[in-house]
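input
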Amino acid sequence: MEQMNDSSSTRQEARSRQSTQLRQSRRPRQSELPFAASGWGGRRRGAGRKPKGERALHPHVRRPERNSRHPLHVTSRIHGGLPSLRQARAHALLLSTLRAGADQFGFRLVEFSVQSNHLHLIVEADDRIALTRGTRALLVRLARNLNRLWCRRGAVFADRYHAHELKSPAEVRRALAYVLHNARRHGALGAGIDPFSSGPWFDGFRERGGPRADFIEAM
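output
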């Protein structure tokens, strides 16, 4: 009798295992489920924050360390659709704002040129952090004052500024000529010295002599 019970129990266990195996074999594995590719998630080409503005100047990457002995040529653009920076009513405001932010955080503004929709700056900075803090502070100050002048709110500068390190005297000379004569390149000035630049206080022009009056003190 006990042998019959054991045999019956063994057969039931065998049938139960077979039934379980059959159900598992019919159930699709998770890796085989027909999920459609959604295109979301994971690392992919082109992902990440995009530069702003119609003409984005600089990718959002960490700026390299720099040599404090080298000046820099900094460029920053404003958003499209804003008034021109070369308006007569903006002239005094721009000069006073540049003067106020010309020397701070180990950052020094040396020369500048204001065009209709962008700025060119020749600057010196003690290190990468001084460059970042000084340039940002200057641009924030400019944006705040321009918004007040234009009776508006919102962003003024369209993207990160671009900074190019000037590593030789020849490169510095070319950058100075490019910045101080930039209005001619854009057709905004026929001849003479651009009043929307530090040209009136620059003593390096060949046709001018005499000691230079520092534009920060002269304004």
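quick obs: The two ends are 116 Å apart (CA to CA).
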